[in-house]
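Folding Query — how this chain folds
Tokens — whole-number codes for backbone shape
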Amino acid sequence: MINPFFRNHGPLRISEIIKSLNLKKDNLKKDFEVHDIKDLFSSTSKDISFFHSKKYKDIAKKTKAVICLTSDTLKNDLPETCIPLIVDNVLVSTSKITSLFYPNSINDDFDESVKDINETDFRDKVKFGKNVLIGNNVTIGSNCKFGHNTIVEKNVIIGNNCTIGSNNIIRNTLIKNNVKILDNCVIGKHGFGFFPINNKNLRYPHIGIVLIEDNCEIGCGATIDRGSMSNTIIGKNTYLDNQIHIAHNVKIGENSIIAGQVGIAGSSTIGNNVKIGGQAGISGHLKIGNNVEIGGGSGVIKDIPENTKVMGYPAKNIREFLRDKK
């Protein structure tokens, strides 16, 4: 389970899953229990997973999942140990099954459990400003400071020597030691995950958390979405400038510097020692290698190998970009 805060309502029997997806019973060769839903990489022999794109076929071939939601065109890329469950729309089906395991992960209404910090045990432990609210299942380390009008909603763990500025909202987040979060940030809410279906938008459950490692700084106005099927991670010693959006499942490595107004779409992975200039945009499901430098205003739409400098739209090697500008 990637999120220690959401209760898993499993195990579920495969017959229950087939019924919930309105599939024919002849899809069921044998009935058994699965304990959780996970991505291809994290799944164990007790889990159900999903496989919706050839982009992940190398991972699919090695998955340990016992059963997998997939399409007829992709089923042959799964190992013999994994039973393919053929569905019309893999992601919609995955959303429905995730909702069965984690029904409390769909909505993100405001936390009604919060109390004024003066009414909690933290009043003598934390230095805080005016109108600070704390929710249930919150842990705060030593020597921490909270600014005015900050709300630490339910399901948050904060380490030692952390400074949380004013007007922040935090939930479903694990913050390590020596972290600074400046003003007006929203961290740990669900991401922009939904599917248009039958003239409605089906909200995708987000069962991950945000993990902010040691010695990070998060600039003013940043929004960091919690993960959907894995965690959103900000690596050690990484600094984010103001007005940055980090979408669900994004993983940023250590010692990286990201300038203002950068947007990183869901499920992209950023390596260590990466520098990203202001107003750059990175599309989803991409891999940015270690020691990459991305120029300001660039649009990244494909993977970037390590030790590379790129710029422009679409982003290209800096030498090629400068040559084309002559």
